[in-house]
Amino acid sequence: MGRKGMLLVGHGSKLPYNKELIETTAGIIAKKTDEYLVKPGFMSLNTPTVEDQLEAFRKEDIEMLVVVPLFLAKGVHINKDIPELLGLPEGGRHGTFQLNGKTVPLVYASPIGSDPLLAELMLKNASDAIAELKS
Amino acid sequence: MGRKGMLLVGHGSKLPYNKELIETTAGIIAKKTDEYLVKPGFMSLNTPTVEDQLEAFRKEDIEMLVVVPLFLAKGVHINKDIPELLGLPEGGRHGTFQLNGKTVPLVYASPIGSDPLLAELMLKNASDAIAELKS
């Protein structure tokens, strides 16, 4: 089995923080697992764009492309703008992706959403801030 | 020791998804721990507002107020707008909060930021989407 591609999609921002977040998270994922070849791409304002990275993935030997939006929740970008860039219908979750000479499945994952891991992260941020106060 | 208050701050949105995310996450945190009395509040577009919930916390018996922004990353809201609502200087992380008849510490936590838990959540969302394709 070959590797899967993971396109980690960020919103993009004029400020540096969104880009940093997406790129650092892509780096953490890449270090954590060999299952995915991870590339970060931005919907607007930053580069590489989603389109740039789709083109870059066409040259890779991957068995599937998983598009993971690093967004908090659904909204117009998740429901409409990103599917458009992926050639999916609105609300579409599965399609195909053309590599050089072969077609592989394309899967569009959900944004963060409410998840026990997110609750845990909020508790961690709260504890860290309290620890900083006490130190 | 009494409980701490946690004000979980959301951006707010015309669409229902941000409000749902913040309220559901507040519920998960409340179920998970007795350490905090959790109230969700919104910066704009939804209610209860941050100001509403600050007023509500003044009536509670808490030993500290921790304000945790459920935002992806720093930006104008995190650096400037929320501190203003909390009476903190720009970049400020610690202050005081007036309850009815006593003053307690106020702590302003960081937004999500790059964290191994966020990377784990992205991997989970990717796996879930792939599992859905195969089912």
UniProtKB/TrEMBL annotation, chains A, B:
Lyase in keyword set: yes
Originating organism: Methanoculleus oceani
InterPro entries associated with the record: CbiX-like, Sirohydro_Cobaltochel/CbiX
BP GO annotations: cobalamin biosynthetic process
GO molecular function: lyase activity; metal ion binding
Annotated CDD domains: CbiX_SirB_N
Superkingdom: Archaea
Keywords on record: Cobalamin biosynthesis, Cobalt, Lyase, Metal-binding
Gene3D superfamilies: 3.40.50.1400
Keyword Metal-binding among record annotations: yes
PANTHER family: SIROHYDROCHLORIN FERROCHELATASE, CHLOROPLASTIC
Record-given protein name: Sirohydrochlorin nickelochelatase
Pfam families cross-referenced by the UniProt entry: CbiX
